[in-house]
Amino acid sequence: MATPNATGAGAAPAPGTAPSRLRELAPAAAGAGLAAAALLLTGQIDQGPETAGMIGPRWWPETLAFTLLGLSALHAALAWRRPAPGDAPDPATREGVLRLVAMAAAIVGYGVLWYFIHFLVSTTVLVAALTYLGGGRGWRALLAFPVVTTVVLYVLFGVVLRVPL
Predict the structure, then answer these.
(1) 102 and 74, same structural domain?
(2) What is the mean pLDDT of residues 135-155?
(3) Is residue 73 located within the same domain as residue 128?
(4) 7-15: long-range pairs with CB below 8 Å, 24+
(5) At 3, phi and psi to the nearest 5?
(6) Residue at 15 is within a domain
């Protein structure tokens, strides 16, 4: 007899059908692979003689890559230590796949749009599109949140860190 899961809906999977531990470790492996690629690419950044002994152009990308590598290792350790889940995740739906593809297309479109339109406009459009695709509705989610997010990013990178946007 099947027992209800933690939410009280549905039934627990039959013995032997629980998702494998590899499925839980896949995000950690993907993060570690991305961190390794970032470290390889960061190694190609020219430091220049004027940055000897100082924080140079490699510092921030390397810091992010090592942080991602550490978080991936932590994720893998926690996933390995945690008991295997009794419930399989819900299967992928057509709507979920379409949302994921639309989000990826929006990010690619952002790169193209940013080439032609200023950072402030293109980032606001991207954040609004991702919010809508993620289920956000209403003026706060689709107008206020993208504007505030864009302004914070602009002030942080454009004004404080003087990154050319």
Answers:
(1) no
(2) 93
(3) no
(4) 12/86, 12/87, 13/86, 13/87, 13/88
(5) -110, 150
(6) no
125 pLDDT higher than 60 = yes
Which range of 2-16, 75-89, 133-147 scores highest in mean pLDDT? It is: 133-147
Q: 40 is in which domain, residue-wise? A: 20-45+57-84
- pLDDT for res 44: 87
* Prediction pTM value: 0.58
Cα separation, 71 vs 35, in Å, equals: 10
Can you say whether residue 138 is alpha, beta or left, with left for phi > 0 and alpha for psi between -120 and 50 degrees?
left
Domain membership flag for residue 124: yes
pLDDT bracket for residue 89 (50, 70, 90): low
Which of 33, 66, 84 is the C-terminal boundary of a domain?
A: 84
CB 17 within 8 A of CB 85: no
Of 62, 70, 25, 26, give the one whose Cα is nearest residue 43.
Answer: 62
